[in-house]
């Protein structure tokens, strides 16, 4: 055990949106999320810092083609993949990210590199130049399911406004909307917080559209709290959700109170999203206005998840 240290805490998400189809889909997503939780929490138990744990978690989720980030990212209206990612470490309160980058396996790695850069947020052209400077291998994140999804939508003249939150053949056939993003929030054994978020976008969007995850609206961390958001990016931006929750905690609200107030306001405004968070005391919180939030956590004693949580409450909390 880690003597005289904080008990690490961890929560991750794989998107928010409509319900998963059937017990098999729930079980498959649960396995994916739990595998990430186990590997990242083991790293935290070695004394690793929150930023490294968050980066590892994002890498693992980006590499899982089930989720809309990295491998398995959705296609935009022109059939191209453009991904965004952000990272923020609470002690330095330093935000970094990339916007609409392509041909890279793990966009979160670029966000990590930019943590120590004078220019910490790069858009498409700048991110591509950074990839060349780093001599990063060219990588194609396209999967057959996402290509099929785009081709089916193209036949209907892009009537659908969102790609599937999870890449499943059942969802492609059903043509139901979803909102895909992955995110990780961690508290390490030194009491430091960090948050990371990565996405392939909402799918079929106008070229050049920027997601919330590349902004403090969707990914934010200080010494007080850290938040990662998922859902309709424009709704998250309009609420400035991640930063709003953290500011409320800084101003004296508990994490539960900050999340409850923010999600109550969001519900009244007709927003569609979810969020995960941890504060400096180790409290874990999540919330959603969408139908389902694909999230799992380790509270220091056990692993749990929100996959079948579809009650009327706006938020649910774990301490």
Automatic annotation (TrEMBL):
Domain of life, source organism: Bacteria
Listed InterPro entries: Ntn_hydrolases_N, Peptidase_T2
SUPFAM superfamilies: N-terminal nucleophile aminohydrolases (Ntn hydrolases) (SSF56235)
Xref: Pfam families: Asparaginase_2
Binding residue positions for substrate: 209-212, 230-233
CDD domains: Asparaginase_2_like_3
EC number(s) on file: 3.4.19.5
Active site feature: 181 (nucleophile)
Coiled coil: none
Keywords for this protein: Aminopeptidase, Hydrolase, Protease
Protein name as it appears in the record: Isoaspartyl aminopeptidase @ Asp-X dipeptidase
Upper lineage: Bacteria, Bacillati, Cyanobacteriota, Cyanophyceae, Coleofasciculales
């Amino acid at each position: 055990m880690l003597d005289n240290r904080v008990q690490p805490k961890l929560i991750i998400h794989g998107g928010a949106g409509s319900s998963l189809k059937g017990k098999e889909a729930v079980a498959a997503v649960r396995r994916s999320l739990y595998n990430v939780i186990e590997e990242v929490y083991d790293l935290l138990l070695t004394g690793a810092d929150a930023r490294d744990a968050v980066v590892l978690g994002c890498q693992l989720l980006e590499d899982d083609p089930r989720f809309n980030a990295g491998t398995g990212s959705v296609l935009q209206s022109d059939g191209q993949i453009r991904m965004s990612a952000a990272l923020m470490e609470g002690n330095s309160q330093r935000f970094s990210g990339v916007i609409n980058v392509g041909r890279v396996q793990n966009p979160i790695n670029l966000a990590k590199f930019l943590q120590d850069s004078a220019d910490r947020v790069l858009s498409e052209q700048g991110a591509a130049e950074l990839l060349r400077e780093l001599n990063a291998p060219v990588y194609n994140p396209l999967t057959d399911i996402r290509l099929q999804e785009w081709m089916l939508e193209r036949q209907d003249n892009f009537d659908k406004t969102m790609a599937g939150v999870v890449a499943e053949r059942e969802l492609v056939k059903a043509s139901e909307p979803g909102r895909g993003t992955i995110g990780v929030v961690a508290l390490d054994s030194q009491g430091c917080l960090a948050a990371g978020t990565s996405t392939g976008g909402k799918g079929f969007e106008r070229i050049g559209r920027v997601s919330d995850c590349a902004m403090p609206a969707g990914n934010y961390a200080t010494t007080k709290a850290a938040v990662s958001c998922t859902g309709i990016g424009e709704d998250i931006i309009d609420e400035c959700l991640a930063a709003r929750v953290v500011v409320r905690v800084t101003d004296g609200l508990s994490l539960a109170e900050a999340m409850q107030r923010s999600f109550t306001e969001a519900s009244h405004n007709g927003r569609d999203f979810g969020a995960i968070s941890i504060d400096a005391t180790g409290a874990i919180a999540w919330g959603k206005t969408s139908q389902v939030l694909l999230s799992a956590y380790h509270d220091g004693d056990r692993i749990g998840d929100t996959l079948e949580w579809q009650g009327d409450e706006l938020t649910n909390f774990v301490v």
